[in-house]
Write a structure and sequence with these properties.
alpha/beta; single chain; binds flavin mononucleotide; Rossmann fold
């Protein structure tokens, strides 16, 4: 089973920490959305989208690359955010479900955040994602293999 995760993690590399732990244990390809113009999804059985959360959504490049996923593919979502009080994958998941993709689920946790006024107080969520949150992402990934 071939799996790819298309990601962007530009704020502090928080989301990438989750993905690196997954890639250390499982055979998965990671594609940095900020470095490519397109992804050929045909060869993959499962496609993940992972992102820091900006203004309530996944990074624009990740969302934009998700639009070309062929109908019927299995998809999943991973994110890190400043405040984990809602499902930030809702928007991108709906886009893909509307295209006929099958969602395997979402994993989200908090990540170090120095955006805007948070910077003045040295940021919030220092040390996150922590070991437990990283292990949670690996567990989530393992749940649908
Ligand atoms: C421009 C910007 C906007 C953000 N907007 C949100 C937001 O709407 N909700 C939230 O919970 N966190 C928000 N954050 C915090 C990030 O989602 C959080 O720090 C995340 O872990 C960054 O992931 P990354 O290091 O993988 O990019 C924002 C951060 C930045 C830089």
């Amino acid at each position: 089973m071939k799996v790819v995760i298309v990601f962007e993690s530009t704020h502090h590399g928080n989301t990438k920490k989750l993905l690196d732990a997954i890639a250390a244990k499982y055979d998965v390809e990671l594609i940095d959305a900020s470095k490519v113009d397109a992804v050929d999804y045909e060869n993959y059985d499962i496609i993940g989208f992972a992102s820091g959360v900006v203004f309530g959504k996944f990074y624009k490049k990740v969302t934009s690359l998700a639009k070309s996923v062929p109908s019927g593919k299995k998809v999943f979502f991973i994110y890190s955010c400043g405040k984990n009080n809602k499902d930030y994958s809702e928007n991108i998941r709906k886009t893909l479900e509307d295209k006929g993709c099958i969602s395997l689920g979402t994993y989200g946790c908090i990540g170090f955040d120095t955006y805007g006024p948070m910077k003045l107080i040295g940021g919030i969520n220092k040390g996150h994602p922590d070991e437990e949150e990283i292990a949670g992402a690996v567990c989530f990934y393992a749940s649908f293999l």
